[in-house]
Amino acid sequence: MRTRIIFIALISLAAPLFLATANAAATLDELLQQTRNSREEEDQNAALNAEKFNNASEADQARMLRETTAERDARAAVAKSSADAYSENEIRINGLNAQLRQKASELGVGEVFGLARQVSADVAAVLQQSMITAQFVNQSSQEDRVTFLRTFSESKTVPVITELERVWLEMQKEMTESGTVASFDSGVVQPNGDRVSAKVTRIGPFTAIADGKFLGYLSSLSTLHVLTRQLPAKFMEIAEGFQNATTGYVQAVVDPSRGVLLSMYVERPTIEERIDLGAEVGYVIIAVGVAGALAFLFQVFYLLYVRIAVSLQLRNLDHPRRGNPLGRVMLAFQGEPNRIEEDVDIAELRISEAVLHEVPKLERFQALLRLAVAAGPLLGLVGTVWGMILTFQSITESGSSDPKLMATGIGQAMIATVLGLGIAIPLLFGNAGLASLSRSLVQILDEQSAGLLAESLEKRRRARS
C-alpha cells in the first residue's frame, strides 16, 4: 500500500512534464521519441524519489507520506469536480443542441428559412432569364448570383446572416437595375461564333444594343449575342442614335416582353423571301402583273397626253391639227371640197370611219389588262393547289401532321393566292380608269363628228334655198 501511494505520487508529479513534452511534438516520430524520453525520465525520477524516501528518517518518511497523500486527495477532489462539471456541461450541450435542431427544423420547414429558400428558387429562375445578369457575371470573386441562389434554395442547413443578406441584395439589385439605362463592357457573341468585347447599352431588362445592333440574351451561357437578323433600317437608325446619345431624352426601341417580340419580329420574312416562297408559280404571277402594270402606265400617260391635246383643240376648232384625234377627224371630214354635195349617209359613214380609226389607239391594252385581271386569281389558284399537294406529300412522307413540316406547303399556297389577288385587284382598278378615260375621249370625238355632220347639213339647206 505504501509503495502504491508513492507510485501514484510520482506519476502525478511527472504528468505535467509529460504533457508539456507531448504538446511540443510536431510529428509522430517526435512524439514517439518524446514518449520514450519521458519514460526514462520518469524511471529516473522514481528511482531518485525512492532512494530519497528510503534514506529519510521515519519522521521524514511520515511527513512525505502525509504531503503526498494530501496532494493526491486534492488532485482527486479537483478531478472529481471537473468530471462532474464536464458531465453537467455535456448534458446541457446535448439539450441545447436538441432545442437548436428543433427550432431549425421548425424555421426551415414552414417559417422564415423555408420562405427564404422558396423565394430564392423563384428569383433564380427570373435572374437566369434576365439580361441584367450578363452585366454582373464574373465581376467579383463571389459565386455567380444565379448559382448562389439555386444552391441556397436547395440547402438543408441553417442559413447564416450573410446568405440572407445576399439574397436580399440580389433581389434589390435586379429591381434597381430594371429601371435604369446602363452602359458597360461585355463579351458579345458574334453571328460567326466569335466572342468580342464591345460597349453594350442596356435599357433595363428589355433591350440591349452594341455597335448600333440589337442583342439577344443566351440564358444558358449568361451572355449577350448579336441577332443574326436585325430590325428594319428605321429601327437601326433609332438604335444607333440612342447609343450615341449622352444627355436628354432620346427615342429608343424597347421590347416589353424582354426579347420575345424582338426575336419574333426579326424572323418575319422579307418581301423577297415571301416571293421566293411562292416558287415558280409566284414568278409567273409577278411577270403577268409587271406586264400589266407597264401596259397600264404606258397607256395612261398616252391618254392623259391625248386628253390635253384634245382639250386644246376644242378651244380652237377653226384650225384643226393632226397632232390629236379630234384634229385628225376634223381634217378627214373637211379635206374634200365636194364633201357638202355628198349624201348625208355617206358623210356620216366617213365621219364614223375617222372616229373608228382613232378608237383602237384609245382603247389599247385594255384587253391585256382584262386578261391579267382574270389570269391572276387563276394562277394563284394553281399555286394554292400545288402548295396543298406539297403539304399532303410532307404529311405522307413523315407520317405526322407536324405544323413545321406543313408550313412550307401552306405558305406557298397562301403566297400564290395573295400574289394572284395582289395583281388582279390593282389592274382591275387600272383597267376601269383606262376605260373611263378612253370613253370620255371617244365621246368627245362622237360629239364633234355629230356637230360637223349637222353643220354640213345646215350648209346644204342654205345652198338649196
Give a written overview of the molecule.
The protein has 465 residues and is an alpha+beta fold. It has 3 domains: 2-103, no CATH class; 130-256, no CATH class; 279-464. It is built from 15 helices and 5 strands. Helix 13 runs antiparallel to helix 15 (403-464). The chain is rod-shaped, with a radius of gyration of 54 Å.
Helix run count: 15
Number of domains: 3
Mean pLDDT across residues? 78
Beta-strand content:
5-15%
Q: What is the count of β-strands?
A: 5
Radius of gyration over all CA atoms, rounded: 54 Å
Gross morphology is rod-shaped
Termini distance?
189 Å
- The helicity comes to over 70%
SS-derived structural category: alpha+beta
Q: How would a textbook summarize the main sheet?
A: 5 strands, mixed, barrel
Lateral arrangement of strands in the main beta sheet: 1-2-3-4-5
Instruction: Summarize the helix and strand pattern as letters.
Output: HHHHHHHEEEEEHHHHHHHH
Low-confidence region ranges: 1-22, 337-341
